[in-house]
Recover the amino acids of this structure.
């Protein structure tokens, strides 16, 4: 029988977090038919063996190389058979009722392609989710470390609202946890694999909305997200990947001029980062 939900986790060297993530899935198992698929991107920390030994019900796919977060998710989507796809980061933990709430909402809102939950930090505090599509001025503010101050002063600039306890139709939600309608994927296509990591969910949400679907933030569903624990392991390489994805997204959706502007600024920032790391290395 076809499952209602396919839960897909792409992992790279986050063994302990992945274990906690999987434990949360089975501990809060929703009263719907679901399957769990883990795509391991050539981890060297024993992650894949842990899944095979401790979670035999999960479908494990071992990649010989690190294919990236986006391609890893597409590998899982191709293998999945659920009517809905739940993309879940390995550094996330489901809380009781979260999957059921998203599923029930999707069933009663056939125009909804993507549903994102309320995200919580490790300490239980709010991690804001469900925002407006990014704009170049927000990117530039972030690049010069003024973004947090600007958003604190004017939350509507990024989020469009101040209330995160109420359902809201939004432009995009975090890829840390997102329930996606399979019929919508069949219409617009899978994630764009040119994005190794970062901006892939923003691009996807934009494509869904362009096709006439809606994207929702659902606070009844709560998920703990241990913020960026996987990508932090990559260090300086993460900055290169993020800026490349930024350029690709703006080139695709906002044209050459905006993309080139961001690339010029990011080039300077990357040069400064390399100098910083080089000086740290010499001091050590």
């Amino acid at each position: 029988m076809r499952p209602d939900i396919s839960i897909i986790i792409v992992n790279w060297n986050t063994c302990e977090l992945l274990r906690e993530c999987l434990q949360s899935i089975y501990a809060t198992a929703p009263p719907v038919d679901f399957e769990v698929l883990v795509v391991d991107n050539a981890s060297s920390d024993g992650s894949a063996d842990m899944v095979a030994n401790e979670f035999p019900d999960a479908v494990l796919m071992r990649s010989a190389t690190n294919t990236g977060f986006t391609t890893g998710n597409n590998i899982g989507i191709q293998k999945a058979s659920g009517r809905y796809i739940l993309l879940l980061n390995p550094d996330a933990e489901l809380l009781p009722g979260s999957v059921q709430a998203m599923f029930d909402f999707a069933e009663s809102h056939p125009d909804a392609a993507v549903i994102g939950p309320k995200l919580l930090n490790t300490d239980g505090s709010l991690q804001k989710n469900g925002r407006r599509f990014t704009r170049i001025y927000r990117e530039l503010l972030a690049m010069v470390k003024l973004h947090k101050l600007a958003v604190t002063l004017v939350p509507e600039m990024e989020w469009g609202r101040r209330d995160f306890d109420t359902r809201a139709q939004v432009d995009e939600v975090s890829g840390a946890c997102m329930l996606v309608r399979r019929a919508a994927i069949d219409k617009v296509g899978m994630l764009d694999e040119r994005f190794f990591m970062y901006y892939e969910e923003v691009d996807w949400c934009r494509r869904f909305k362009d096709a006439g679907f809606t994207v929702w933030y659902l606070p009844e569903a709560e998920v703990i997200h241990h913020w960026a624990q996987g990508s932090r392991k990559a260090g300086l390489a993460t900055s290169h990947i993020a800026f490349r994805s930024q350029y690709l997204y703006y080139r695709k959706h906002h044209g050459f001029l905006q993309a080139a502007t961001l690339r010029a600024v990011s080039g300077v920032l990357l040069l400064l980062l390399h100098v910083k790391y080089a000086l740290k290395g010499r001091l050590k």
Observations:
- The domain at 5-230 is CATH 3.90.550.10 (Spore Coat Polysaccharide Biosynthesis Protein SpsA; Chain A).
- The chain has one domain: 5-230.
